[in-house]
Amino acid sequence: MPAPVLLVSDHVDGSVHALTVPDGAVVGNLTGRHLSEHSGFLALPGGRVACVDDRRGELLVLDPFAEKLVERAVPVAVPAEHLACDPSGRRLAVTTGLGENTEPWSDLLTVLDLVTGETARVRTRVGEPGVTVLGGDDPLVVLRHREPGELAVHRFADLLAAPPGCPPVTPHAVLPLPDDGHGDVQVPGTEDVFAATGEGVHRARRKGDVLVNEAVVPWGSPARGWYLRLDTRRPALWSTLRGGDPDPLRWPEWTNQAWQHDLETGRTLHTELGPGLVFRLALARHHTAFTRIHPDGDELVLLGTDGTVRRLPLPAMEGAPRRGGTPWEGVQRRAVAASPGSDWIAVSRGGHGEVHLVDAETGHEVTRLRPGTPLHHGGHMTLRSRDDGADGDPVGR
């Protein structure tokens, strides 16, 4: 069985590196490719990955286990905001967002069929829409809009059949949603869609060619999640709940909890992660990984499926967020990656061009990979095994 492959993107420098884990052997390189960090990597069947080059305006299908890394390149509208596919990995949708702008300005949505090669661009609503793609005989594209909040339902076939010229389209159906939605999940096999809001996680179920409301899943905390992820190892949702004064200058005081909701039992678990900046997470075989950035010291937090919590201190980053500044503008950050088919955890050290490779079973760093670029802003990463089941989550991360 081939070794897992870590894809490391330096979206500022414009490079992508494919390294085998744990030895760090280079199996592929791309230059002049500025991948969208926001839309992230989308796991496809067979260990493949989809992502968007924001500078060239192309969706890339990468196969890190093939002789040629780039399997396909398809023109799409940019800047890419969110990326998703149907459970088969055949039909994809790419929404557009802010990019390097202070306000949303683009209303373009791209849909494509990887089997037929068909693609279309349409106009929807200016904003930063999230997206999920429901499969079946009549696939649906569900856009999660904000201000006003709604889940807008479009038939995939109608979008794909749109004439040239990026015509405006009207949703086939609309379901109201709070204005502050941020974070999307689809659960294959159930045709359930989830959206994170301040009220909790809103759940909608497909009924024919529309969506109907289900009960809201509460956060169970005064804090809320801004990120939502499906656990492909078991039917569960994960998020990080951020609490405290929302002023970005107060970020060292933000509280953080890991939030896990079991979709079979309805049970919700909270685990304290500590103060500072915690955002995205990664799912390994038996652990869920979080990085926590704080002026008093950074760490990798590993939550085991057996309830254990391990904390691994991480070397400081020059240019890291500091007290009195925000955690977003002009600072270095960390990316974290894992595969549900292995025990490896990869954590980047932004600005230093280093990736810490940790064995989740022992909680120890095994080696440090140096792909050859600074990894500005922490870069972005994904770890794939050939048949790790990561494609069970059909939303880009």
Please, could you describe this protein's structure?
By secondary structure, the chain is mainly β. The protein has one domain: 7 Propeller (Methylamine Dehydrogenase, Chain H). The protein contains one helix and 33 strands. The strands form eight sheets. Strands 20, 21, 22, 23 and 24 form a five-stranded antiparallel sheet that branches. The two termini are about 25 Å apart. InterPro entries: Quino_amine_DH_bsu.
Strand content of the residues, in percent? 35-45%
Provide the domain count.
Answer: 1
The helix count comes to: 1
Main CATH class: Mainly Beta
- Which residues sit in consecutive blocks of at least 5 with pLDDT less than 50? none
Q: At CATH's second level, what is the architecture?
A: 7 Propeller
State the shape: globular
Which structural category do the helix and sheet elements fall into? mainly beta
* CATH topology call: Methylamine Dehydrogenase, Chain H
What is the assigned CATH homologous superfamily? YVTN repeat-like/Quinoprotein amine dehydrogenase
Mean pLDDT comes to 97
What is the first-to-last residue Cα distance?
25 Å
Major β-sheet, in short?
5 strands, antiparallel
The total of beta strands comes to: 33
Helix content: under 10%
Radius of gyration from the alpha-carbon trace, in angstroms? 20 Å
Biased composition (Basic and acidic residues): 384-397
Region (Disordered): 368-397
InterPro entries: Quino_amine_DH_bsu
